[in-house]
Amino acid sequence: QVHPVESGGGLVQAGGSLRLSCAASGVTFSHYDMGWFRQAPGKVREFVAAIGGSSDNTYDTHSVTGRITISRDDPKNTVYLQMKNLKLEDTAVYYCAKATTDWDYQDLYYDYWGQGTRLTVSS
After folding, report:
1. CA 18, CA 2: separation in Å to the nearest integer?
2. Residue 28: its pLDDT value, please?
């Protein structure tokens, strides 16, 4: 089975930067679209960004445009989410997920999820 593992979360001051990582065995990430989601305290899980498995095209939500870069390292079977100019609203648990077929903004189109890594942005 697929076992994604996120890492890289922590406590960061507003305006700072951080890189989240997602690695897993049991699947070749380059063959599938991959996505990052986040869930803030008391809020529903929301889409953050995605990267294509074949085209390497990237997509993100308006709240992070210009502040994030999603990428992959195929030899390491790892997907990254580089975040900069962090804001208080970025505080959340971040999840890495594999798309069942094609990426989408809705989380029901992803079939394997990591345990999440927590990012806290302080003022």
Report:
1. 25
2. 81
